[in-house]
Write a structure and sequence with these properties.
Blueprint (H helix, E strand, L loop, with lengths): L16 H5 L12 H14 L16 H9 L45 H29 L7 H4 L3 H7 L6 H9 L6 H12 L5 H8 L15 H16 L9 H9 L4 H13 L12 H17 L1 H10 L3 H4 L1 H5 L7 H14 L2 H13 L1 H6 L2 H9 L8 H15 L5 H15 L4
Helix pairs in contact: 8-10, 9-10, 10-11, 10-12, 11-12, 13-14, 13-18, 13-22, 17-18, 18-21
Length: about 425
């Protein structure tokens, strides 16, 4: 059924109250389950470094395709069996990294950059650096003019804000800009104290969290080593959130989102950002038992696909390929499974416009691959859609098409909300099933 081989089913990963009470056993009750002991050992390894600072739910699925997608979310970055468990790495693993901190393998190919000869790569890096510096200066000047204006007014306050956002926020300014989009503030001492209380409290999801941390962003230099500063921070953020929102707890996919935030925020601010992100647009409902927001979003995508790309919709229906088969991973990782440069460009817009913009991205991906989808049979279509994030993608075209769809639909008769309301009404009419 798509579960991790050799692992217990998702619901069984949660420590029972009886197991948690075993943490304080007496001589009359000395037995602790092996799962609980394993969690305690992992917790000790993470939190023994609690004084170090990083700069940087398992739900029961109701659909086999979603269960399969969940089980595969991070498997492509699972460490090799002979990786050192004490966090030591070979020195050559860190010999060369790309501009985002991802390790360039020996062949010269970065997981997030197209293969080119060294001289071409060097020239492009120099040209990109000069362009990025010029763009950063323009953004600094623009942000100074926008200081004090509400985020919803930025388009009106500066006529070039929209066009510059579509081109992407300069990497050096993403922390500042994303903080504004999420309306984050500098964490108060009381908030940091609350964050510490939350991650020091034992969570029933710690075993699954630990399993997923070990295979999250393993090709990034900060997450490469076992129990590195970044992995410690990731453990804290995920455990804290599972205690902050026990109804959600933890679900695979959340580790990728939290790790991504830790690349731009300190751990306490990353936790604050995760909470803000999940509360906005009720995004937390993506990860509740039964995945209510996921199926609601599938309904929106299907309705808009029928309207905007009717031939693609008809072809996928004929082949029997619903969005749950190929788009589950897209939404449960908030589109962070794609090449990193594309993911950051998507998030520049998603953090401003909200979850509905991700539907536009999904439609843009299908539009870009329209010809292939229309000319392919079932097996090829399935391979194309399931491996889409691993294939060469035209970053500029995807962003341009997604923005065009958003411009057409985003502010027109509130189409997204109408479709979401329609889905909830249909669900209520069927008795909530």
């Amino acid at each position: 059924m798509g579960e991790h081989k050799g692992e217990v089913p998702f619901r069984e990963l949660r420590i029972t109250p009886e197991e948690q009470s075993g943490m304080e056993t007496t001589e009359e009750q000395p037995v602790i389950s092996s799962i609980t002991l394993e969690c305690l050992n992992a917790r000790q390894m993470y939190l023994k470094t609690d004084n170090r600072k990083s700069s940087l739910k398992s739900n029961s699925p109701t659909d086999n395709s979603i269960l399969s997608a969940l089980s595969e979310l991070s498997l492509d970055t699972r460490p090799d069996a002979d990786d050192s468990s004490d966090g030591d790495e070979k020195e050559e693993d860190y010999g060369n990294v790309d501009r985002f901190g991802f390790i360039v393998v020996a062949s010269g190919r970065s997981p997030y950059e197209e293969t080119k000869d060294e001289d071409q790569i060097r020239k492009e890096q120099e040209r990109r650096g000069r362009k990025e510096a010029r763009r950063s200066l323009k953004w600094v000047s623009m942000l100074a003019r926008l200081e004090g204006a509400h985020i919803s007014k930025w388009h009106q306050e500066h006529r070039k804000f929209g066009s510059r956002l579509i081109k992407g926020v300069p990497e050096s300014l993403r922390t500042k800009v994303w903080s504004s989009f999420l309306q984050l503030s500098v964490p108060e001492p009381t908030f940091e104290s609350r964050f510490r209380q939350l991650y020091l409290r034992c969570s029933g999801f710690e075993r699954q969290i630990d399993l997923d941390i070990e295979r999250t962003l393993r090709d990034h230099v900060q997450f490469r080593a076992r129990f590195s500063l970044a992995q410690v921070s990731l453990f804290k953020v995920l455990v804290a959130y599972s205690n902050h929102d026990p109804d959600v707890g933890y679900c695979q996919g959340m580790s990728t989102i939290a790790a991504f935030l830790l690349l731009y925020f300190e751990e306490a601010t990353a936790f604050q950002a995760l909470v803000a992100l999940f509360e906005r647009d009720q995004t937390r409902r993506l990860f509740l038992a039964g995945f209510p927001l996921l199926f609601e979003t599938f309904h929106v995508q299907e309705a808009l696909l029928r309207k905007l790309l009717p031939r693609v919709k008809a072809r996928l229906d004929f082949l029997g390929i619903p969005p749950s088969v190929y788009a589950t991973r897209w939404y449960l990782t908030l589109f962070l499974g794609f090449p990193f440069a594309l993911s950051t460009r998507i998030w520049d817009l998603y953090l401003l416009f909200g979850l509905d913009f991700l539907v536009c991205v999904a439609l843009a991906l299908l539009k870009v691959k329209e010809d292939l989808l229309l000319s392919s049979e079932y097996e090829h279509c399935m391979q194309l859609l399931s491996k889409l994030a691993e294939t060469p993608l035209d970053e500029e075209r995807i962003i341009r098409v997604a923005c065009a769809i958003w411009k057409r639909l985003g502010d027109k008769n509130n189409v997204f909300e109408r479709l979401r309301t329609q889905f909830r009404d249909l669900k209520d009419a069927k008795g909530g099933k």
